[in-house]
Amino acid sequence: MSVRLPGASKPATAMAALSLPPLPLRAPPAAAPAISPPHSASTSLKRLCKEGDLRQALHQLTARAPPPREHYGWVLDLIAARKAAAEGRQVHAHALATGCLDEEDDGFLATKLVFMYGRCGRVDDARRLFDGMPARTVFSWNALVGSYLSSGSAGKAVRVYRAMRASAAPGSAPDGCTLASVLKACGVEGDGRCGHEVHGLAVKSGLDKNTLVANALIGMYAKCGMLDSALRVFEWLQEGRDVASWNSVITGCVQNGRTLEALELFRGMQSSGFGMNSYTAVGVLQVCAELALLNLGRELHAALLKCSSEFNIQFNALLVMYARCGRVDSALRVFRQIDEKDYISWNSMLSCYIQNGLYAEAIEFFGEMLQHGCQPDHACVVSLSSALGHLGWLNNGREVHAYAIKQRLHTDLQVGNTLMDMYIKCDSIECSAKVFQSMSIRDHISWTTILASFVQSSRHFEALEMFREVQKLGIKVDSMMIGSILETCNGLKSLSLLKQVHSYAIRNGVLDLILKNRLIDMYGDCRKVHHSLSIFQTVEKKDIVTWTSMINCCANNGLLNEAVSLFAEMQKANIEPDSVALVSILVAIAGLSSLTKGKQVHGFIIRRNFPMEGPVVSSLVDMYSGCGSMNYATRVFSGAKCKDVVLWTTMINATGMHGHGKQAIDLFERMIQTGLTPDHVCFLALLHACSHSRLVDEGKHYLDVMMSKYGLKPWQEHYACGVDILGRSGQTEEAYRFIESMPMEPKSVVWCALLGACRVHKNHDLAVVAANKLLELEPDNPGNYILVSNVFAEMGKWNSVKEIRIRMAERGLRKDPACSWIEIGNNVHTFTARDHSHRDSEAIHLKLAEITGKLSKEGYTEDTRFVLHDVSEEEKIDMLHKHSERLAITFGLISTRPGTPLRIAKNLRVCGDCHEFTKLVSKMFEREIVVRDANRFHHFSGGSCSCGDFC
């Protein structure tokens, strides 16, 4: 047999080409050692190979010419283990020179050489040597299959196996080692079909009972995502199981995300009497990391320390486990115990800091890495970029980016995606877009990230163009990408686009629960409650977010009773409300002014031990004030241990809405003394309080303080408050000049404030200016038309009123009918003007007529100026008598015990005549009557009102 050195024409030339000095083929005569018996030389060489002394083993191998073939085998095994390709070529050359690779060789030495070249990563050399073999045994085929497998060419390994099957040469039938190697290759390739074929051959040849093959089958099925098949093989193996069998099936469960089954198998392994090894430990530590099983992880750590003499402790796996369990201190202790830290150790510890939100500590640890000479690799760049993104350190992020470019790491897909995300978190969208443009390979994460960046920076049209590009390229669209485009729809306020994206998500099967919940929110924002309800009803397994979204949708669209009903249904469905759901329902209850239901929710919060802080306590204060109970609101506020700006603002707004302007100012000053800084919303609440209490000078002062002391640029709403403060005090012309001095174009809210003031103080000329501006800015708002119509009616311009009503009809606009409601017991009773639908309607109207008659005898006279209809005086009086708030008050009087306070809510403002009527009723019946209208609260008692007749 003649097998040449790969790439050489003859042995002498090959020796001359070696990079290392050639070893002598024969020992020099002068230095020749005493001749030892052959068995002594064999023993010495075998010992050297076991000890790993390669150089001495090579010297001893070449000391005899020719040495026995088994000697070559021992040395080649050592070379393979060391991956010493240069020395392997020397031994190959020596074998050629001594004639050991002749035609009489049975393939033993050639097979050893193929195995050696494969392990050294010289697969092409192994292949050329294999192709030159005149006769191949199963061992030769196994060596070549193993060569491709160890070099990462699993597909080629499978092709060699198929060629082996096709050769049908004597002595080349696959054995257990062949099938185990091929099954491993199938697992790497994810080729379950080929693996299944190999399984069939194993059964046919009886090799499926071989533990090595069975273990390989378990591993192959697990890697191909066919875990049930892997478990069946494991169950079938029964008595043939070894530690490797248990390790394979445990690892398979972990790889397929079935961590609980992996844990059960580990317990079964222990009960079966099998001791774990380092591979078992790694698998179970992964389970501990996934399930955050800190105690079990500690037990394994202790067991590993006890068994440290038997096998290597898996420090890196322990480190990761502690990191995932949030025990950074324990992870750091494990890291410090590692004597020889590799890149995995350093990167795992760096990732540990980042996973637990310790970004600054991660940067400090990175400095320690550099001090120890550990150069950042791609995993380190990914972790470092993530930390810098969370910290918002843009300049340092650019440095990392520059390093990645210098080291050619930026071409890595994961690095590119992380750099994009880092720039987005640092509010540098342009840099993120440049990274995206420079990426030669992009996955759906890349596209989703750039879409999110455009949406985040309100570049909605660019986001849409990017999404169209995604569709053109045929990139798979997932739910996260759809979520970004939905935010674009929200940003553009486009209902038609929202419907298109919704349809696209349905057609492409990506409409998951998260998207459905978001769609419920978005259709609600577009005032399409019926669309939200349709989606809500299609969700089979509704979670807390689904229920909360639908409750919010109803509450935000004025369907307050429906929101409360949904909350009750949610509890019946055994869905436990969280803080977000509680805030939502409290908002709805505040809108309903349902004190009874508000108290029930408050009790629920106390029973469930929800912390009285943050949005929950702020919502409770808002709810109690919205239900007209400032005593309860104050009690909740005073009991809160941690008062933030939101809570102070809520309390300031509550006192202002109830007409206690001085108290609101006092609260504001107390907040400043605690060291908190007021924001735009806080000043808005304070200015509203000044407006409702006619505190003109104070309002001007705080508007100036907002800009001069705190540097806050006023919103349109702040300017509207300024206009309202001046207008309510009768300074309508000054209010108009204030509008003209605004540094921005005034919007409808500002003109609405001026129009309301002009209506009260009869400045008709200025009212016409404000009315025209209002209708020009918001031509589709029915409330504006009604306001303008009322102004014209008060001026007696009935033709103008008629014209306004026609314009409303042409646009398909209609006003909300006036209604009032009162809560008696657990029920809310609603009334509209001249309402006869209530079950006690007859009694209510009789009682109201009686009350009106008594008041008339005491001097009450109806003020028909507040009836803005072109009808007779008698009709006007009759209309005033049947206003909805009077019906609600009357029902409250006949349904409650004497002295019980009455709380009424109305969707529109209380007219002046009803305001006077209620004052007189509170005195006649000695009742406190709290009325909440669309503008503020009125507390009537003893014939007077908290607003000071400043409606």
TrEMBL record:
PROSITE patterns to which the protein is assigned, alphabetical: PPR
A Pfam family hit: E_motif
Subcellular compartments: Plastid, Chloroplast
Gene3D superfamilies noted in UniProt: Tetratricopeptide repeat domain
One Gene Ontology cellular component annotation held by this UniProt entry: chloroplast
Residue stretches of each PPR repeat: 242-276, 342-376, 443-477, 543-577, 644-678
Sorted UniProt keywords: Chloroplast, Plastid, Repeat, Transit peptide
Domain DYW: 859-950
InterPro entries on file: DYW_dom, E_motif, PPR_At4g14850-like_plant, PPR_rpt, TPR-like_helical_dom_sf
The keyword Transit peptide is annotated on this UniProt entry: yes
GO biological process: RNA modification
Name assigned to this protein: DYW domain-containing protein
Organism: Urochloa decumbens
Lineage, opening ranks: Eukaryota, Viridiplantae, Streptophyta, Embryophyta, Tracheophyta
